[in-house]
Design brief:
Elements: E1 26-35, E2 38-45, E3 49-56, H1 63-73, E4 84-88, E5 95-99, H2 106-112, H3 114-117, H4 121-140, E6 153-155, E7 161-163, H5 175-178, H6 192-197, H7 202-217, H8 229-237, H9 250-259, H10 270-284
Antiparallel strand pairs: 1-2, 2-3, 3-5, 4-5, 6-7
Helix pairs in contact: 4-7, 4-10, 7-9
Bound molecules: the ligand CS(=O)(=O)c1ccc(C(=O)Nc2cccc(-c3cn4ccnc4c(Nc4ccc(C(=O)N5CCOCC5)cc4)n3)c2)cc1.
Amino acid sequence: ASPCDRPVPATAGLSHDKWEIDPAELMLLEELGSGQFGVVRRGKWRGSIDTAVKMMKEGTMSEDDFIEEAKVMTKLQHQNLVQLYGVCSKHRPIYIVTEYMKHGSLLNYLRRHEATLDGNIGLLLDMCIQVCKGMAYLERQNYIHRDLAARNCLVGSENVVKVADFGLARYVLDDQYTSSGGTKFPIKWAPPEVLNYTRFSSKSDVWAYGVLMWEVFTCGKMPYGRLKNTEVVDRVQRGVILERPKACHKEIYEVMRKCWCHCPEDRPSFRALKEQLSVVSQGLL
Ligand SMILES: CS(=O)(=O)c1ccc(C(=O)Nc2cccc(-c3cn4ccnc4c(Nc4ccc(C(=O)N5CCOCC5)cc4)n3)c2)cc1
């Protein structure tokens, strides 16, 4: 019988899990950057969809666990989260395919545009509010980021800011990055309970969010300057916090300070932060 009148088998298309992307549908373009994890390139998916393709160097990630988690991550959808489109896991290195953000990381954007951003309180606050909305969504989904910082947020057109790489830290194999004693551990974004017991929670993400607000209002300065990790750990455990950036109104700094309460339960939720920041933002108009 001709193929057109042969019944389509019920399993057609099911062999490809929807989080699995066929590399034949990806056209790899210029390199966007790289790190110890591998290389990131811009890509076109199915001819027209702009993507960023992270090509994970072998040995940097527990791949099978990550591929399992990718099924969950593709379901996390919000206008302030960098959308995971899927993975190419049938070859090595595996590819992590996400939506493309054309202005790169928030940290580099702040540093590159300091001249126009500095003093533009409304725009800086709007960037913080966008990150807060993405994080409030993750909080509602009981999803912990574990490495929130300006370097892990991305900027798209019209100053859209989105949170990236949520949850990815759990799959990094380099224990210099994963253990709080390691040289690559993000000490400056970690609260006391993470430094002492690696106890991650949405409230430890809130602490990191306070540091991200400080990064935004300093247009990308390094928190605690050139202090060594051991000196930062000592200060944080003694309750010494980051000073108010000069471009930052006292009421905005008050919000940051609440994110740095020693006890996690005394810190506001992202839901509460979103309310507080929009009140401040209206007050500015
Ligand atoms: C700690 S870890 O888990 O090992 C880990 C480490 C690193 C990463 C990671 O993704 N890093 C990473 C590195 C480079 C680019 C990315 C990266 C990831 N992306 C996801 C979506 N979009 C992007 C994107 N976009 C870019 C980046 C740079 C430019 C650029 O060249 N510009 C210059 C001209 O002005 C505009 C900006 C443009 C767009 N860059 C991500 C993720 C996880």
